[in-house]
UniProtKB/TrEMBL annotation:
Coiled coil: none annotated. GO terms for molecular function: cis-regulatory region sequence-specific DNA binding; DNA-binding transcription factor activity, RNA polymerase II-specific; metal ion binding. Residues 5-67, 68-129 form the LIM zinc-binding domain. InterPro entries: ISL1/2-like, ISL1/2-like_LIM1, Znf_LIM. Pfam families: LIM (PF00412). GO terms for biological process: axonogenesis; neuron fate specification; positive regulation of transcription by RNA polymerase II. Its main location: nucleus. Keywords: Developmental protein, LIM domain, Metal-binding, Zinc. It comes from Hypocryptadius cinnamomeus. It is found in: Nucleus. This is ISL2 protein. Gene3D superfamilies: Cysteine Rich Protein. PANTHER family: INSULIN GENE ENHANCER PROTEIN, INSULIN GENE ENHANCER PROTEIN ISL-2.
Length: 132
């Protein structure tokens, strides 16, 4: 209801004929709903993400808060295929032996030492507690 709502962005009353509602209880002036990182206006045409009371565009939210590749530290897109080793996630092209650079494929035996992946040829038999 215009005139009764307080803008989550500026704190002022929303008396405009239109407002934007994000989440069930946050309302914004149309001009106040912008990405906290890049300033892109966030309206009904783009996806909006909230974190700690701030609004973000999809690109910045993914970059700042999304899971990142354990090797290259880049964010993943929704279409990326990934490889996992314990709590680490890798792009397929980043899932490589740290010693020889060989790409590790599903079914390959490897060892994870801290953040380094090692193929079977470079680590020998898996030590106790290693991922194989």
């Amino acid at each position: 209801r215009p005139g009764l709502a307080l803008c989550a962005g500026c704190g002022g009353r929303i008396q405009d004929p239109f407002l934007l509602r994000v989440s069930p209880d946050l309302e914004w002036h149309v001009a106040c709903l912008k990405c906290a990182e890049c300033g892109q206006p966030l309206d009904e045409t783009c996806t909006c993400f909230l974190r700690d009371g701030k609004a973000y565009c999809k690109r910045d939210y993914s970059r700042l808060f999304g899971i990142k590749c354990a090797q290259c530290r880049a964010a993943f897109s929704s279409s990326d295929l990934v490889m996992r080793a314990r709590d680490h996630v890798y792009h397929l092209e980043c899932f490589r032996c740290a010693a020889c650079g060989r790409q590790l494929l599903p079914g390959d035996q490897f060892c994870l030492r801290e953040r380094d992946l090692l193929c079977r040829a470079d680590h020998g038999p898996p030590p106790d507690g290693a991922v194989a």
